[in-house]
Design brief:
311 residues; alpha/beta; Amino acid ABC transporter substrate-binding protein (PAAT family); D-Maltodextrin-Binding Protein, domain 2; 10 helices; Solute-binding_3/MltF_N; signal; five-stranded mixed beta sheet
Length: 311
């Protein structure tokens, strides 16, 4: 989504729409080969110069499960039904289908988890801001709504392991795409970013020699790149992926460099929320998430809904 409280801090940081993509390149914990480390980069040397890439990096389906750390099957005998809560309008993660029923990536993932656990599954759609209250007042058992894990929310609910994450990425015009971006490559370059965002804070901390151009909205920032008023923009990779592949971009632009996933700036990831202390359900969902990923069903869902990779 979309976004998030951070993934709804997405709904706030969320100017998202969402989207992603293809392959067997599963990134355990997002530390795989396609993830560009946001920490210190090795010195490039006096002769290091950025090279222009002919095209964007291959798409990849993110994975957050380590096959070497297989969770034990928990006692599922006390689970007979899981009442999932989700939000009403955050496509392609959550939306109302043509038949009037809940649809989207989150909804289909919830049903896959229930199928793995072998329990009845219901999905109720509510406004995002009402979901936590509905969960804590026992009007549902779990929230699957692109909800970002945060210290504030952890005080009210417990979370499963992350089932996706929203990286940050640079985008440039297609004639200036870089396969790799380091701070020294952007010295003196004009970089658009949303004013007051975590992305701006990251640039100020890590890309100190870039010339930052803050914008009040995603639309204004993207228009500046399309018109060539800035060299790069830096923001939420999910919404950028949809923009790049959509009609609004005019086929002007592409990703440059890889994803940045520093949790201190961009959050811990997106998890499923359960009531505080409900370890039976939390452990069951963690086990089912691993199983759905291990069987390839997570990849199938990802590729069904997301055509452009932010990773």
């Amino acid at each position: 989504m979309a976004p998030s409280q951070q993934a709804k801090s997405f709904k706030s940081v969320r100017g998202l729409l969402a989207g992603l993509a293809a392959g067997l390149c599963l990134l355990a914990g997002l530390s795989g080969a396609n993830a560009q480390a946001p920490a210190k980069q090795p010195p490039a040397g006096p002769q290091a110069t950025p090279q222009v890439a002919p095209q964007a990096a291959p798409q990849a389906v993110p994975g957050f499960w380590d096959p070497r750390r297989r969770p034990e099957r928990p006692d599922l005998s006390r689970l007979t039904v899981i009442r999932f809560l989700t939000e009403t309008d955050y496509p392609p993660f959550n939306y109302t289908g043509a038949d009037g029923n809940p649809a989207g990536f989150n909804v289909d993932l919830a049903r896959a988890l229930c199928d793995e656990i072998k329990v009845t599954c219901t999905v109720q759609m509510r406004r995002f801001e009402t979901l936590v209250d509905a969960l804590t007042s026992n009007r549902g058992d779990a929230i699957i709504a692109s909800m970002a894990v945060s210290p504030q929310l952890r005080a009210r609910v417990d979370f499963t392991d992350p089932y996706y994450r929203v990286p940050a990425r640079f985008a440039s015009r297609k004639d200036a795409v870089m396969p790799e971006i380091r701070p020294e490559y952007l010295e003196g370059k004009k970089v658009g970013v949303i004013a007051g965002s975590a992305h701006e804070a990251y640039l100020k901390a890590m890309f100190t020699d870039a010339e930052l151009h803050p914008y009040p909205s995603d639309d204004a920032m993207r228009a500046a790149l399309r018109k060539g008023e800035v060299d790069f923009i830096f923001g939420d990779a999910i919404s950028l992926a949809f923009w790049i592949n959509g009609t609004d971009s005019g086929d002007c632009c592409a990703f440059s460099g890889g994803p940045f996933v520093e949790s201190r700036f961009f959050g811990e990831g997106i998890g499923i929320a359960v009531r505080k202390g409900n370890d039976v359900l939390r452990q069951a969902l963690n086990w089912a998430l691993f199983r759905v990923w291990e069987k390839g069903r997570y990849t199938d869902l990802w590729l069904r809904y997301f055509s452009v990779s932010p990773f």
